[in-house]
Amino acid sequence: MIRLENTSGGAVSAAITAERHRMGSPATGMVLTLLILADEESQADATAAAVATARQHPMRIITLIPRPDARHTQLDAEISVGGDDGPGEVAVLRLRGELSEYANSVAVPLLLPDTPVVAYWPGNAPENPSDSKIGRHAQRRITDSANVRDPLAALAIRKSGYVPGDTDLAWARLTQWRSVLAASFDQPSSPVHHVTVEGESDNPSVVLLGAWLGQSFGCSVDTVWSDKVGIRSVRLDMDDNPLTITRNDDDKTVTVIRPGRADAHLTLPRRSVSALLAEDLRRLDPDDMYGQVITNLEI
Question: Is 113 exposed, middle or buried (CB count within 10 Å of its CB: 0-12, 13-18, 19+)?
Fold first, then answer.
């Protein structure tokens, strides 16, 4: 770990390059730059998740931590290159005092040339991520509405400020549920006329799953709030037999129930933030399905 106090973005970039050369491994193979804008409370977990993700997507991770309450205006940095942190490069930057308003000026000298830029807000995010000082530099912008005080209000903000290239980890948490539901319709079935989704109170993934199903089938949707974590069950009412998918008490599997067929027990573990980030970083083009769901969301 290299620590620099009262430094600059250019000096941080030079220190990363020097450390690469010292290790005998020039900065090649980096596929993107990930900009994380976080507070002190969330920065450690967000950076650790990004470092784990870098094992699949070698990248430069720049964590920007605004500290407007600091008495002095200065930039302090902690730099790590390769080693135990994987193949990527990590720079944790604390922007103290007035400098906290100029995160973009600090970040620009650190962006890898000719590679995509992704912005990630693990907590509170701007109303319009694409028009923020950091978001303007990014092809993809990742938020996490589940990680704020009022998740459903945050989801409404994501809808109002949506621009292609935006996404939210609440949507990525649904990938496995969506796969199980899609696989359940590999065989012909009657039309779905009503959907019921049961899940944790104020969980944005519950709302997004209901919206996706309602828009896909053109049917009504009911939400049942629960005191348990995450999505608990999905019921699709059809003209013949209903389809029910219920999470089991082990929190690792679900049971698919449809009268006239044998019950199916499927693995559906909860995924870490690093796994969710890795999924979103596999594609840097806009997620059209998320865009369709969020823009037509009724909330």
Answer: exposed
- The C-alpha atoms of residue 230 and residue 208 are separated, in whole angstroms, by 12
> Is 286 inside any structural domain?
no
Mapping DSSP to helix (H, G, I), strand (E, B) and coil, where does residue 117 land?
Answer: strand
Of 170, 190, 222, which closes a domain?
Answer: 170
The reply to whether 144 and 41 lie within a common domain is yes
Dihedral sign from CA coordinates of 96, 99, 104, 108:
negative
CA distance 159 to 181: 24
* Euclidean distance between the first and the last CA atom of the chain, given in angstroms as a whole number: 45
Domain boundary among 170, 196, 212: 170
**Is 282 a domain residue?**
no
Mean pLDDT score of the chain: 91
CB-count burial class (<10 Å; 0-12, 13-18, 19+) for 114: exposed
% of the chain with per-residue pLDDT over 70 = 96
**Quick check: 252 and 269 in contact, CB under 8 A?**
yes
134/50 same-domain check: yes
Q: How many domains does the chain have?
A: 2
Half-sphere exposure of 209 (CA within 13 A, CB side): 35
User: What is the distance between the alpha carbons of residues 280 and 275, in angstroms, rounded to a whole number?
Assistant: 9
Q: Is the pTM of this model over 0.70?
A: yes
Residue 67 CB-density burial (10 A; 0-12 exposed, 13-18 middle, 19+ buried): middle
Instruction: State both tokens at 155.
Output: 């989801």
DSSP state, residue 286: -
